[in-house]
Amino acid sequence: MQTALAHMDFHAAKALLDWQIELGADEPIGEAPVNRYEIAAEAPKPSAPAAPEAPVAAEPEADPVAAATEAAARAGSLEELAAAQAAFELCELKKGARNFVFADGNPEARVMILGEAPGRDEDMEGRPFVGRAGQLLDRMFAAIGLARTAHHADEALYITNVMPWRPPQNRDPDPAEIAMMLPFVKRHVELVNPDILVLMGNTPCAAALGKRGILRLRGSWTEAFGRPAMPMTHPAYLLRTPAAKREAWADLLDIKARLGELP
Ligand code: URA
């Protein structure tokens, strides 16, 4: 080619070049042969793939019981406790509930009732025990001279639940949900400081005593959070089982008698 080109005039050479370009030639042919396999071998290596990112330390799973314990311990008043519990984000029940249900009644009361969880009416209203079971509860305690509306501590009631959010379909709260609310319940009892605690149903017995089986537990004094506690059948159970009201009445009389004995 070199030799042939040497004898070509400029115009012939230009025409030949144009033709080669048209055929797809895109680089001049050098003097020496080129081994393209070597080139490929020597070709600069593609830049090394980016080093895998240093594993990002997985966000440690929040420990709901530890978080609740810390939040509850910081609360120095019922208002602060309510705010801390309402702001607690690690309980799934909160997402499905309409309202946060903290408490009702007189915080000076000598008797504090610990129920299970809000139902439909309580969730709508944001107050514990306002549905049919709540109305029965009011009548039961009125029979021994106690009311949530009373001003005097001796005649008053203070009412709360283990769970401040309604579980879907009113299912029982599960053990993990109870465990993460327990620090708030403990602090609640500490701040109210009642003489007597009434454990209304299985969930408060599970929370405060670590036991279930309300029909076995009811009617016998026990101790919860360092004070006398009486497990009682839940008023919702009494609505379904009127025959059990006799025993509930006996438990109420026992509470009244104990109030008389305590200083
Ligand atoms: N049952 C409960 O245990 N608590 C309520 O507030 C209402 C029904």
TrEMBL record:
Name recorded for this polypeptide: Type-4 uracil-DNA glycosylase
Keyword Mitochondrion found: no
UniProt-listed PANTHER family: TYPE-4 URACIL-DNA GLYCOSYLASE, TYPE-5 URACIL-DNA GLYCOSYLASE
Pfam families: UDG
Family: Belongs to the uracil-DNA glycosylase (UDG) superfamily. Type 4 (UDGa) family.
InterPro entries found in the cross-reference section: UDG_Type-4/5, Ura-DNA_glyco_family4, Uracil-DNA_glycosylase-like, Uracil-DNA_glycosylase-like_sf
Limits of the Uracil-DNA glycosylase-like domain: 102-253
Keyword terms: 4Fe-4S, DNA damage, DNA repair, Hydrolase, Iron, Iron-sulfur, Metal-binding
Its EC number(s): 3.2.2.27
Record's keyword annotation contains Transport: no
Xref: CDD domains: UDG-F4_TTUDGA_SPO1dp_like (cd10030)
Reactions performed catalytically: Hydrolyzes single-stranded DNA or mismatched double-stranded DNA and polynucleotides, releasing free uracil
